[in-house]
Specification:
Chain A: It holds the Pfam family DUF7885. The complex is a heterodimer of chains A (658) and B (480). Chain A is an alpha/beta fold and 658 residues long. In chain A, 39% of the residues lie in helices and 12% in strands. The chains are: A alpha/beta (658), B mainly alpha (480).
Chain lengths: 658, 480
């Protein structure tokens, strides 16, 4: 795509300028990759104007850019501030007000993990965006009732996610329920203060709710009784609700709109409760009963046939499942697209065979930790499920290249395969390489694969996005060269404990422009030079893990602070860096939000103090050695806390591994 | 009337008696000494823990021993009387005085005996007698106190009076009166209390049915007091000076000042109940307010049981609420007792609705919110928020540093705002210069290309413009 955009734009600038903005916007709409769009923008002012006028969504990475974003893109409807470093009430309010007197058309705002934003910011946001429809406040752990009260002023709100807003109580929920009666999607996962009383009011005030997530709440069956009055309820998640049992599920039987139910980790829910639910709700599409039902009873399996036509997703993780059970599932649910059997005891080749024989439409098969499976299971999957896209085979020790060969030859749509801890070799990779659609490949702990296998992958899997080579210790720089040569789309790469890798390997990796996440724990041979080449080459880098890279020194940090302006998450524990390097790093990286720096024995207390002061407005998570708690100045710690930064103090002895 | 006033009489008597006792130090002291052993077992158990509530054999045993002691004491007293009587006829005055003293002792001892014996019965239905607060207990004590404390004056009283006092029947009767009064007073206290509660809870509605004796019309005597009568502050008036009193007992105490004849035990004692009262019809009351359910003309008339009920009902339902709570300044009451009850709980209703109504329980608040459109639960400190609301709106636009410092988070505001202002206003202009001055920490800035800073797109192309020596120079500078 990017190759298409660049050469044509260079020559045709004049022609592009002549075209109308609508046409250009229309043309841009077909360009999905943000990098390609950028190429277009840079090539022609007309494109830039068209883009600015038509752009619908933005994801600012620094709060300083926010006012310009709002001014430049007047038709913005979706604003993602979850990665916006340094965002706080004042800057949010100022940015929104500086957008001019005109009302913003923004409808969706994501403030996930925006821990610096409180009720003042939310109030300003709600006032500035009268058309607000969806807000995501998940993981704003400090958010409480006051923040909810501010949000409740957005009367048109339809979607609200407030997972892990730990301060929210029934009062906050009631504020939202009363203020936003049109709510149709709500998640209050992990809001542990919310009780039955709040849920009851919610059900009374928001009759249009379609999706509710009350996972991990301390609510009882009474909440389900209240929620059962919602006529449009389609989706409900009850993960880890310890006080809900079959009686509650029976209350949910009223109505028949339910399409998806998640009762995983509800220890008091049994097969009978689920059976009675299925009996009355006849259009269920998704059931997740992982780690809940104590055993699969025949009452549940026999009822499955009543929803056999509609059921597409069935997850039964962690249960005892025998071949006969799987056969019953296969007999009744012909349209299954996803089956989850991870950590299920008793899953055998025969069981898988009797399941997949009927379920030809399976796309996702999760058999993680089904230790008994062999190549026969893979063969029967390959034979019956030609559409399969995702195979999770982690810790299936009896499968090998023969089984994977069958898969690779028959399942050409395979996009994701997890072979972590499977004893596979280079030959298996040779077969897998024929799956040209492959995007995610996990090979962690497969210590027998070598550069040869990676060469196969690099030769054919150009669409690879994620590659996990955790503890593949036989990998060397040549293997990386092959991957970097062939798989330009890689975004996530895990090289932890591949100890043979040196700076030369990183030099190869530096050609991966799209790389965002790079984990390189314990690569003891890499130095600042390697980091420098990564920093210069991989400009998209967002997360970097350099824990226990003992040879990495200040030079690496200098390069990172110079070039990795998008870096958000960094681990430099045990690195050989000094206070000066740290200071420069934290002073320069304006997107950095999450920093782990344990056992930096070369950094003085002043070094820590200075560098943290330089970044304290932006940091959200910090991991430091417990001993520093008493020596760092209280003002600094107070400032960090006030800016919404959470510090995790660890006490670990300094042990050198490698 | 008598019944309802009875406990009031007891309580007021308690107050009076203290004064009275101190006026007569001689015998007052003596009596107090005698009381000392009495109060210890009973007083302790009644004031701190109610005997029948946590009934234990140890207390019972104590009480029994106490009774034993007392009986022995009574025996001793009588024995001395017998001895004295047989010995020699002393002077008339001496003898009477001694008799009086002995009789007073006797009375006192017997009262103690009875009350202690009463406390031994844990299964007594009417627990209020046993658990009766010190007021009731003081009641008996005070009667004794008052009866014995005028003994010094008795030397001067006339012959008839002497005879009056000496006759054993009189003592019996007097004593009976005391104990009856004490007991009934105790029971009455409870009844009145219960009735008041009922009246408060259900607007006297459930009164008739609650008391269990749903009298058919005509089976009781119906009285209707007039408004003035109900609202009159005093119901008992001194026949000599005209001074008014709320309670008969207070009047009797007052009467002592008008002459010695009012100081006799008989005059001071509670007027004995007529034998005929028992056979009389039960009294019930009607509210004078026409249209009221408690008015006899009402279709579903429900009579009021006592005068106190009449008074409270009339004040609550048909009078202005003149007592305002000093804490919340919103709740008003027409009966002082109601105000005091409210003030005990005022401020504890932490569940507030946006409409101003407060609730003591969360579920009640939420039921209220569910019922009314637009009502929401109020945040605990909503007022402070609203007051600063305006300031923060204005402030956030221009002068973030001037956020109200009282909000507690001013620290954060101060630091972040100054930073932001700087960046926001001259961020663009400043950074292009910064890029040229390489040694400057934090200079490598976001706003390199116009769109780079805020999108997820890598800014590689713009950064690769930098010459490599640029980086090296910075590195050297850092090492220096």
């Amino acid at each position: 795509m990017s190759q298409d955009g660049k050469p044509s734009s260079a020559g045709a600038v004049a022609g592009v300028d002549a075209l109308s903005q609508d046409l250009l916007a229309h043309a841009l709409a077909g360009v999905h990759d943000p990098r390609d769009r950028k190429s277009c923008r840079l090539a022609s002012r007309a494109f830039a104007r068209a883009e600015a006028a038509s752009r619908r969504s933005a994801r600012p990475l620094r709060c300083e850019a926010l006012p310009r974003v709002l001014r430049a893109f007047p038709s913005l409807t979706s604003l993602d501030l979850s990665a916006c470093a340094g965002l706080d009430d004042a800057s949010l309010a100022a940015a929104l007000s500086s957008a001019g007197g005109t009302e913003l058309g923004v409808r969706r705002v994501s403030l996930a993990r925006a821990s610096g934003v409180g009720w003042r910011g939310l109030e300003a946001m709600v006032a500035a965006c009268p058309r607000l429809e969806a807000v995501d406040l998940s993981h704003c752990v400090a958010a409480g009732d006051r923040e909810m009260a501010a949000l409740a002023a957005a009367a048109g709100l339809r979607e609200l996610v407030m997972d892990k807003c730990l301060g929210v109580t029934d009062v906050g929920l009631a504020k939202v329920a009363v203020g936003c009666p049109g709510l149709d999607r709500l998640s209050v996962k992990w809001c542990r203060e919310i009780s039955d009383i709040g849920i009851e009011l919610l059900a009374k005030k928001c009759p249009n709710l379609r999706s509710v997530d009350i996972s991990y709440l301390k609510v009882s069956n009474e909440s389900l009784r209240s929620l059962s009055t919602l006529e449009k309820l389609e989706e409900i998640a009850l993960v880890g609700c310890m006080f809900i049992d079959d009686g509650g599920l029976r209350m949910l039987c009223a109505g028949n709109s339910l399409q998806s139910i998640d009762v995983s980790r509800c220890h008091h829910v049994t097969s009978q409760g689920l059976a009675s639910l299925i009996d009355s709700q006849r259009f269920i599409q998704k059931i997740n009963a992982g780690d809940s039902l104590h055993e699969i009873e025949s009452c549940f399996l026999s009822k499955l046939s009543t929803i056999g036509e509609t059921l597409t997703v069935l997850r039964l993780d962690g249960l005892e499942i025998f071949a006969s059970n799987l056969q019953a599932i296969g007999d009744s649910c012909k349209n299954l697209a996803e089956i989850g059997l991870s950590k299920c005891n008793g899953v055998t080749d025969d069981g898988i065979a009797s399941l997949v024989v009927h379920c030809g439409y399976l796309r996702t098969i999760d058999v993680t930790c089904c230790h008994l499976l062999t190549n026969d299971a893979l063969a029967v999957i390959a034979e019956n499920c030609r559409m399969v896209e995702c195979l999770r085979l982690e810790s299936c020790p009896f499968i090998n290249e023969k089984g994977l060969e069958r898969i690779a030859t028959h399942c050409s749509h395979l996009k994701e395969i997890d072979l972590t801890d499977c004893r596979i070799n280079d030959e298996a990779l040779q077969h897998l390489a024929s799956c040209s659609e492959l995007e995610i490949l996990k090979l962690g702990l497969c210590s027998s694969i070598s550069d040869k296998g990676l060469v196969y992958i690099g030769s054919n899997c150009a669409k690879l996005v994620e590659l996990d080579l955790y503890r593949c210790s036989a990998i060397t720089d040549e293997g990386l060269a092959a991957v970097a040569q062939g798989c330009k789309k890689i975004r996530m790469l895990n090289l932890c404990y591949c100890t043979q890798i040196t700076d030369a390997g990183l030099k190869h990796l530096s050609t991966l422009e799209e790389l965002t996440n790079l984990e390189m724990r314990c690569l003891v041979r890499i130095t600042g030079i390697g980091i420098t080449s990564i920093a210069i080459g991989c400009t998209s880098l967002i997360e970097l893990d350099l824990k226990r890279c003992y040879s990495v020194d200040d030079a690496g940090l200098w390069a990172l602070s110079r070039y990795s302006q998008n870096l958000r998450q960094l681990t430099i524990s045990y690195c050989q860096v000094t206070g000066l390097g740290l200071c420069h790093l934290l002073g320069s990286l304006r997107s950095l939000q999450d920093l782990k720096m344990v056992h930096l024995s070369w950094v003085s207390i002043e070094g820590f103090e200075m560098s943290l002061r330089a970044a304290c407005g932006r940091l959200k998570k910090l991991k430091l050695l417990g001993g520093l708690r008493s020596v760092l100045s209280p003002e600094l710690l107070q400032t960090l806390q006030a800016c919404g930064c959470r510090v995790r103090w660890v006490d670990k002895p300094l042990v050198y591994k490698g | 009337m008598d019944r309802s006033q009875n406990h009031i009489h007891g309580q007021s008597a308690a107050n009076f008696c203290y004064q009275f006792g101190s006026d007569n130090p001689l015998l007052g002291m003596g009596i107090q000494q005698q009381f000392a052993p009495f109060t210890s077992p009973f007083g302790a158990s009644s004031s701190t823990n109610i005997p029948h509530m946590d009934w234990n054999p140890a207390t019972m045993l104590d009480n029994l021993t106490f009774i034993e002691d007392k009986i022995r004491q009574v025996k001793d007293v009588i024995r001395t009387m017998v001895d004295n009587g047989g010995q020699l006829p002393c002077r008339q005055g001496d003898l009477t005085q001694q008799q009086q003293v002995v009789n007073a002792d006797l009375t006192c001892l017997i009262v103690q005996l009875i009350s202690t014996a009463g406390s031994l019965l844990p299964s007594l239905k009417n627990s209020s007698f046993l658990s009766q607060p010190p007021a009731g207990h003081m009641d008996t004590v005070n009667h004794v106190g008052s009866s014995s404390s005028f003994i010094p004056n008795a030397t001067t009283i006339s012959e008839e009076n002497k005879e009056d006092m000496c006759s054993p029947e009189d003592y019996e009767e007097l004593f009976k009166g005391f104990t009856d009064g004490a007991m009934e007073g105790g029971i009455e206290i409870d009844n009145v209390f219960v009735e008041e509660q009922d009246a408060k809870d259900g607007d006297e509605g459930g009164d008739a049915s609650m008391d269990g004796e749903n009298l058919p019309p005509g089976s009781y005597e119906l009285l209707q007091l007039e408004k003035d009568e109900i609202l009159a502050p005093h119901t008992h008036f001194c026949s000599i000076c005209g001074k008014g009193f709320k309670r008969d007992a207070n009047l009797r105490m007052h009467m002592r000042g008008h002459g010695d004849e009012y100081k006799s035990p008989a005059a001071l004692a509670k007027p004995p109940r007529d034998a005929s009262v028992e056979h009389e019809l039960v009294k019930r009351y009607s509210c004078p307010f026409v249209g009221c359910k408690r008015n006899k003309l009402h279709k579903n008339f429900q009579p009021l049981k006592t005068i106190l009920c009449v008074k409270n009902h009339y004040k609550r339902s048909h009078c202005e609420k003149s007592y305002t709570c000093s804490r919340c300044h919103t709740k008003k009451f027409s009966v002082m007792a109601d105000l005091k009850t409210h003030e005990k709980h005022c401020g504890r209703d932490k569940w507030l609705c946006s409409c101003g109504t407060s609730f003591s329980r969360k579920d009640k608040l939420f039921a209220h919110v569910a019922l009314f459109q637009g009502h929401t639960p109020a945040l605990p400190a909503d007022e402070t928020k609203n007051s600063s609301d305006q300031i923060s709106r204005v402030g956030s636009h221009q002068e973030p540093a001037k956020f109200p410092s009282s909000m507690g988070s001013s620290f954060m505001w101060g630091t972040s705002s100054s930073d932001d202002r700087g960046l926001d206003v001259k961020g663009l202009a400043g950074c292009s210069e910064d890029i040229l001055s390489t040694g400057n920490f934090g200079s490598f800035n976001f706003s390199f290309g116009p769109a780079d800073g805020f999108t997820g797109e890598p800014s590689g192309s713009s950064f690769s413009v930098l010459p490599p020596e640029h980086f090296q120079s910075a590195q050297k500078k850092g090492k220096n």
